């Protein structure tokens, strides 16, 4: 490191991704007094964690722990929060980075919007559009906030669904516009772009979930009582579409089977790796079923139980004591028999092939790299590991990358749980702050 | 007669979160009738900018002296509203939040009853609001230096981050060299790196950094003070050093489980039963001979001292599965004809590249057998292991030349002493407890003291290093800021009432109370006090009270709630 060169480093940072890792990293840099841009693709910060019901192994409510952090990000004087925005280009120039950020039009003037929800209430498509936040299990309007605690609490008009935008006409006059007292609706908004120059970049773009339809033998997408782990989170969440009631086909399921490693540890779909969180989130979900439907029979089909983190083994033992049945060996097939599902599997401990009838099957789908993760890496020249996640500098140094000044935080580097993502994000903030403080301090 | 305090009351709809179950207009009307309430309003989203602006405007135009807001939990927006009233010129502690969301609308079905409850809560809070006093937030300078305890890889990385950011860093290490347990490892998973090269470079960086002051063969003897200003006494080979630091990072590492606690496995009895750490040393020395012979049949046994109630360790040690996979492959490389098995319960190959590594081990001919070894006995110069294969259900006995015990991690000896010195907390597994298992994995319950590495729980090098950088970030925030705000909601002692009985200090989790030796009265260290109120309850003569939650203030609220409604 040559001190002279580093004096030119701009004491500002860019964090890409507004999930728990990105928020943590941004807050920690901003708290140290450095200006931080936080860019989030969707209309609100919060990411995957905000979709979760309770978190393992302490059963803390995810929303209750993450919302204060979201509010803090929204209010921080050193954070310029750019939601509903995307990185259009990013390049390293000398020791600094130049990024162009596209701010998509919300068709709502954020300065005027009070978040009252009158527009969504008035929208003619109210309750007709699947809500992504609820994994499409709930419905929203074309004017929407992803969830009531969104930050910023500003409405967005869905350009792909809104009739005024797609058809050029919505009745005589758009109902949302009539309903909005502060006159915040503005269909003339255009995309804006913003150029920023920073001394450090933290990538915290998160993950996609494995698409369970790639395993047709499990019946996902064919039988509606085969759902994914994240769909289960929305189903069991008190803020979800069923207000936390576990209802399948109008009834409380009595026999539930969980299947681990869907899309993980599976060469047939090209994912050799373990997704690190599924064993524990399944154990937690099994516990939540036992809590809400005490007489339910809950079976978990697994290969190895990877209860490795602090308090995990203890939790795994706890759910077994609560009556959750663990059977080693993964199902080969799920088919429908009347209203019920039949799960066919081999118990590799008892050495028997068995069939279990189920009202509900939950697939513990694994963590995948973001579909568009190559966009940013190719602009920056950032490497990927064979599992297609972003590559860390070496296996013992998971924050640094092959580019000085670019750091990784959270699941974009590989699957991990919340505390590991938070610790890594704080670490990335330390390295970024150290770098951008050089010019000033030494 | 005393002039009536002018109160502004505001109730939030929170979209429909509150308004769906609480008739907010009725509650506002109800509040309006209470003596002192000058204005009572309801609004869609009180926390939004227009909502806050409305309150600010009213404070100025109506000269309001207290603000009562019925909304969500104060944990959500108390700070937001404190800031807002402060901007309008009112002391932020003259604000009272009534939680009518989490504690009312969200938990009730019947709108009439929920509205009645909201009214009662509001009445009680208005009574309390009248008795609130302005409080002052102070700022305190932060000593621009850090203490890092422990010179393993976690301590080294934390210390480097802080020193390289321009701050004085004291690193205290118990032994005579840096590097900790990592220095004893031969190669790391999954890249089979010779980590000693990296470690050496890091130690050189540390030694070359002018901001680092290294104390080897040293221990922390005592710590006084709090975030911003810790006074630390270091004991080094008969000498005492006093240093000051603004923040502390604990990176004291782990001990290995003592395999002698499982006598059935023969460790310490048979010299061809060794631990993983013993094997690391053999690999580093490139001397694999045991009893004068190269071992040809080798068993690895997982979970020795982990996931084992019989030794009191319920937890998993997180690194042993992959350590054994690595060692088995290293042995296979050096002794290609060796027959190597790993006896396990679950293979926990969870980290990046771990599963791939585990598969590679199997492809190289390492045999994984599910089920642990129950007994190891000697048969002439060989060993006989007894195990159950839980997949086939059969119990088997086999001869072996060497058995490697994958011993788990246990809390460091001496961690109890440091816990007492710093007043830390431990989790049920005996490791230091983090402040919050999800969102504060690096903090302790004490401001300014952070955790890095295995002292918080077992983890591998990658996770320890990430955590070490993270702990440095937590600490650096205060060093960069240079100042901390002190919370005015702390206990205070009425020395005319205090009998000096010392009961309160025994219930204080934070060590904030101390008897003044001269006057024999209790003194509150306001920097340490968290305002929990435990001392208030313990004091037999009501000499301690908590500011902002005085007996008078709380009782006024209780009185309203317990008396029948008088309109």
Fill in the keyword field for this structure.
heterodimer, A: 442 residues, alpha/beta, five-stranded parallel beta sheet, 11 helices, 24 strands, 25% helix, disordered N terminus, B: 567 residues, 28 strands, 30% helix
Q: Can you characterise this structure?
A:
The complex is a heterodimer of chains A (442) and B (567). In chain A, α2 (20-31) packs across α3, α2 (20-31) packs parallel to α11 and α8 runs parallel beside α9. Chain A contains 11 helices and 24 strands. Mean pLDDT of chain A is 94; it is low at 1-6. Chain A has a 5-stranded parallel β-sheet. A 5-stranded parallel β-sheet of chain A has the order 15-22-16-17-18. Chain A is α/β, with parallel strands linked by helices. Chain A is globular. Chain B is of the alpha/beta class. In chain B, 30% of the residues lie in helices and 26% in strands. Chain B is built from 14 helices and 28 strands. In chain B, strands 8-7-6-12-23 form a 5-stranded parallel β-sheet. Chain B has a 5-stranded parallel β-sheet with strand order 14-21-15-16-17. In chain B, α4 runs antiparallel to α14 (551-562), α5 (153-164) packs parallel to α6 and α5 (153-164) packs parallel to α11. The chains are: A alpha/beta (442), B alpha/beta (567). Chains A and B meet through α2, α3, α9 and α11 of A and α2, α3, α9 and α11 of B.
Brief account:
The complex is a heterodimer of chains A (about 450) and B (about 575). Chain A has about 450 residues and is of the alpha/beta class. Chain A has eleven helices and 24 strands.
Roughly how many Å is the radius of gyration of chain A?
Answer: 23 Å
The shape of chain A, in one word, is globular
Q: Number of helical segments of chain B? A: 14
Low-confidence stretches of chain B: none
Alpha-carbon Rg of chain B, integer: 31 Å
Shape of chain B: elongated
* Portion in helices of chain A: 10-25%
> Numbering strands along the chain, what is their spatial order in the largest sheet of chain B?
8-7-6-12-23
């Amino acid at each position: 490191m040559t001190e002279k060169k580093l004096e030119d480093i701009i004491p500002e940072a860019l964090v890409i991704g507004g999930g728990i890792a990105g928020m943590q990293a941004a807050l920690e840099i901003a708290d140290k007094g450095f200006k931080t841009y936080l860019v989030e693709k969707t209309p609100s910060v919060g990411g995957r964690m905000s979709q979760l019901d309770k978190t393992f192994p302490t059963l803390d409510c995810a929303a209750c722990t993450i919302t204060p952090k979201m509010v803090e990000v929204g209010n921080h004087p050193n954070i310029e929060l750019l939601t509903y925005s995307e990185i259009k280009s990013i390049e390293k120039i000398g020791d600094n980075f130049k990024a162009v950020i596209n701010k998509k039009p919300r068709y709502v003037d954020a300065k005027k919007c009070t978040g009252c929800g009158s527009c969504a209430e008035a929208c003619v498509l109210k309750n007709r559009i699947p809500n992504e936040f609820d994994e499409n299990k709930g419905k929203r309007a074309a004017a929407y906030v992803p969830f009531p605690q969104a930050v910023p609490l500003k409405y967005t008009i869905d350009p792909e669904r809104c009739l005024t935008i797609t058809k050029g006409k919505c009745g005589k006059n758009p109902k949302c516009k009539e309903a909005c007292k502060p006159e915040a609706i503005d269909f003339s908004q255009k995309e804006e772009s913003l150029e920023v120059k920073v001394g450090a970049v933290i990538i915290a773009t998160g993950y996609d979930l494995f698409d369970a339809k790639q395993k047709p033998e499990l019946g996902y997408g064919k039988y509606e009582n085969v759902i994914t782990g994240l769909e289960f989170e929305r189903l069991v969440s008190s803020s979800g579409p069923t207000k936390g009631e576990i209802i399948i086909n109008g009834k409380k399921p009595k026999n539930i089977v969980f299947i681990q490693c869907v899309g993980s540890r599976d060469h047939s779909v090209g994912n050799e790796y373990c997704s690190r969180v599924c064993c524990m989130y399944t154990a937690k979900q099994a516990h939540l079923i036992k809590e809400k439907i005490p007489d339910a029979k809950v079976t978990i089909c697994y290969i190895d139980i990877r209860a490795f983190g602090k308090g995990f083994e203890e939790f795994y033992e706890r759910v077994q004591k609560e009556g959750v049945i663990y059977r080693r060996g993964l199902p080969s097939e799920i088919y429908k028999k009347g209203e019920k599902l039949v799960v066919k599997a081999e118990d590799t401990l008892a050495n028997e092939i068995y069939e279990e009838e189920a009202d509900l099957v939950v697939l513990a789908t694994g963590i995948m790299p973001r579909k568009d993760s190559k966009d940013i890496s190719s602009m920056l020249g950032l490497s990927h590991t064979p599992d297609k996640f972003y590559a860390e500098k070496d296996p013992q140094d998971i924050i640094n990358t092959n580019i000085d000044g670019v750091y990784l935080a959270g699941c974009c580097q590989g699957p991990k749980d919340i505390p590991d993502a938070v610790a890594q994000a704080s670490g990335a903030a330390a390295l970024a702050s150290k770098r951008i403080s050089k010019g000033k301090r030494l | 007669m005393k002039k009536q305090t002018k109160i502004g009351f505001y109730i939030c709809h929170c979209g429909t979160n509150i308004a769906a179950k609480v008739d907010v207009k009725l509650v506002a009307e109800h509040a309006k009738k209470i003596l002192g309430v000058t204005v009572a309003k309801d609004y869609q989203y009180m926390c939004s900018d227009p909502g806050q602006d409305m309150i600010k405007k009213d404070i100025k135009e109506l000269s309001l002296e207290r603000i009562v807001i019925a909304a969500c939990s104060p944990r959500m927006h108390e700070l937001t509203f404190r800031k807002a009233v402060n901007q309008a010129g009112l002391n932020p502690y003259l604000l009272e939040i009534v939680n009518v969301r989490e504690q009312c609308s969200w938990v009730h079905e019947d709108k009439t009853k929920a509205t009645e409850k909201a009214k009662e809560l509001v009445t009680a809070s208005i009574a309390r609001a009248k008795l609130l006093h302005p409080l002052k937030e102070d700022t305190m300078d932060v000593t621009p230096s850090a203490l890092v305890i422990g010179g393993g890889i976690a301590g080294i990385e934390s210390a480097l981050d802080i020193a390289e950011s321009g701050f004085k860093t004291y690193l205290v290490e118990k032994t005579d060299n840096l590097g900790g347990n990592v220095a004893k490892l031969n190669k790391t998973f999954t890249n089979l790196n010779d980590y000693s090269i990296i470690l050496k470079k890091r130690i050189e960086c540390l030694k070359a950094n002018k901001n680092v002051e290294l104390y080897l063969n040293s221990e922390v003897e005592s710590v006084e003070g709090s975030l911003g200003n810790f006074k630390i006494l270091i004991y080094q080979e008969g000498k005492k050093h006093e240093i000051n630091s603004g923040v502390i990072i604990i990176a004291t590492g782990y001990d290995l489980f003592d395999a002698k606690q499982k006598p059935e496995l023969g460790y310490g009895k048979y010299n061809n039963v060794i631990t993983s750490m013993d094997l690391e040393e053999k690999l580093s020395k490139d001397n694999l001979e045991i009893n004068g012979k190269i071992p040809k049949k080798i068993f690895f046994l997982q979970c020795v001292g982990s996931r084992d109630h019989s030794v009191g360790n319920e937890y998993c040690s997180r690194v042993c599965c992959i350590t054994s996979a690595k060692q088995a492959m290293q042995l296979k490389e050096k002794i290609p004809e060796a027959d190597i098995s790993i006896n396990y319960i679950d293979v926990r190959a969870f980290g990046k590249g771990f599963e791939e590594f585990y598969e590679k081990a199997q492809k190289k001919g390492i045999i994984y057998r599910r089920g642990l070894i129950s007994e190891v006995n000697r048969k002439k110069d060989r060993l006989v292991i007894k195990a159950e294969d839980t997949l086939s259900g059969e119990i088997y006995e086999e001869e072996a030349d060497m058995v490697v015990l994958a011993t788990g991690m246990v809390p460091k000896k001496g961690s109890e002493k440091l816990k007492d010195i710093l007043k830390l907390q431990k989790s049920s597994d005996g490791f230091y407890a983090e402040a919050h298992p999800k969102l504060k994995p690096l903090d302790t319950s004490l401001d300014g003291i952070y955790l890095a590495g295995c002292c918080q729980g077992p983890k591998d090098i990658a996770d320890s290093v990430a955590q070490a950088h993270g702990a440095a970030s937590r600490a650096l925030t205060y060093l960069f800021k240079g100042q901390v705000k002190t919370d005015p909601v702390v206990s205070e002692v009425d020395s005319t009432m205090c009998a000096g009985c010392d009961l309160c200090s025994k219930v204080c989790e934070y060590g904030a109370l101390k008897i003044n030796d001269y006057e024999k009265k209790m003194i509150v260290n306001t920097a340490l006090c968290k305002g929990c109120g435990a001392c208030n309850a313990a004091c037999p003569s009501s000499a301690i009270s908590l500011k902002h939650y005085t007996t008078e203030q709380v009782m006024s609220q209780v009185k309203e709630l317990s008396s029948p409604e008088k309109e």
